Amino acid sequence: MSEVLDDDSLSQFKRAVEAVTTKKMSIRKAASAFGVSKSALQRRTTGQVAVNAKYARTKRGQCFTTAELGLFVCRVVEESPYKREIPASFPSYLWLAKFIKSNSKHFSRRKAQNLETCRTIAATEENVRSHYCNLKTAIESCGDFPPSCIWNLDETGMCGQGSRNAKVVLASKGKRANVQQSDSRDSVSALVHTRGAMEGVIFAASERSFLVTALFVKYFKWFVNMIPPAGPVLVVMDGYKAHFTATTLACARSQGIILYAIPAHTSHFLQPLDVTVFRHFKRELDNEIDSFQKQTHMMVDKSNLAEIGSRGLQKALT
Known about the structure:
The protein is an alpha/beta fold and 318 residues long. It has helices at residues 7-21, 27-34, 38-45, 66-78, 93-102, 117-122, 125-141, 213-226, 246-254, 267-270, 272-296, 302-316; strands at residues 150-159, 187-194, 233-238, 257-262. It has a domain at 125-316: Nucleotidyltransferase, domain 5 (2-Layer Sandwich), CATH 3.30.420. It has twelve helices and four strands, in the order αααααααββαβαβααα. Strand 3 (233-238), helix 9 and strand 4 (257-262) form a beta-alpha-beta unit. Helix 1 (7-21) packs antiparallel against helix 2 (27-34) and helix 11 crosses helix 12 (302-316). The longest helix has 25 residues, at 272-296. GO terms for molecular function: DNA binding. Residues 161-285 form the DDE-1 domain.
């Protein structure tokens, strides 16, 4: 986010920066003497933030729904110096659709991705650069070793209801588009590691639908026994608290395994399994659920979700 300073504040910051860079004052004394933020002064003197404000285009687009775009267009027309009679129905949905199509080089209609506030704050260029620099350091610390020794670990959930609202065909008038689905909303979590293909599956259960520490430790020990013993191994995963426990760290250290944690709240675009495999897996899972219900005339529940999910996962990995 850009930081805009007025003339007085900018002058004070410049004087504070000069006092620190010429070693006349410490950061603490300069911050107190010139009435500026200590943390801001530290960032500026270390080159992290320039003294002058940086004006640039945001990396995230300003999103409008169709209705909001209509209100925006209507307001622009009303405030235009060219006076004209504006119909009460302007702009219509058809007009907006044509407007978007004719300006497709500048913007487009896409499905929005919902982001929690913490994810929005964490998704910065600084965090991404720091992540890849740290990952490079972790890889270089292992020495000269093949890519086959780099593993990615993640978990995801499956629900018998699927994850999408499919489009259906029915009479155009007088009918509601309702589709019967399973009444089970229980989420079955699947923890997956991959190096290009799925060779086997193990089953375990916890009292809750979330991955707990004891279950992950059991899985991690199984994983250690499955990977080749030669050479160092790098495992990339998100920093979920169940992943990084004293037992897991001790087990990894004893086996020469380096654990690398993806920055918090960034797995939605930095976690390789989330971005590639699991996204495709959810589509294949929805297709398998639809196929199962059509062929068997039964609803999906936890008793058959593992079998259906395995078929979807195999298709996603091949």
